[in-house]
Amino acid sequence: MRAIILAAGRGLRLKxxxxxxxxxxxxxxxxRTLLERHFDLLGRHGVTxxxxxxxxxxxxxxxRLGRIAGRTHPEVVLxxxxxxxxxxxxxxxxxxxxxxxxxxxxxxxVLYHERIMQALVANxxxxxxxxxxxxxxxxxxPVKVCVRAGVxxxxxKQVDEGLKYDTIGESxxxxxxxxxxxxxxxAIVADYVHSGRANMPHEEAVRDxxxxxxxxxxxADVTGSPxxxxxFPGDVDRAARDIxxxx
Length: 247
What we know:
This protein is α/β, with parallel strands linked by helices and about 250 residues long.
């Protein structure tokens, strides 16, 4: 199993002062960076092959890898046009998606409990999996996963009013892909890039895969497990105050 960690974006919504700006994945909680926590949890669950997709301030991140990667020796791929959408960043990791075996696609800017990693890597026989949290706060920001009869039918921030579903939750930003589906996702992502849609979020490509026949996804419900995606200044405070004591 191989993990692709997406950490190329600039994180403008975090509104860090230029003179003290650091990449979001190097934000520290409890004396450990988000990236260090990723490496630790992946290693604990047997995932030692990690591809780190970088862009903004990649030199700063690479300079820290020796101190925070532990026993993990991540391969670094670079997206020089990181200001575009994350689908382009995922495209830079195409070789990792087509290199065989199950693949994890993970956002870097998440602080989360180990139970979420356990749900992601459980059952090693090769399954596609999307994680959801039903306890999310409604609004335009969360990427929603809509589920009908146990099958995900939508993955988007904006859900069509006429869509029929029986469960809705927020995507954690982590996906598990079996080998064949990872190869197919690489092709979908390449089509986005080559057709002028490199500015799109990578979730749009994952959405296409979810909705394509032959690539069935399991839904792992992690409601109640502490986690937070770091996008805004308030998220940093909430992560330190509410999430860190529970992870």
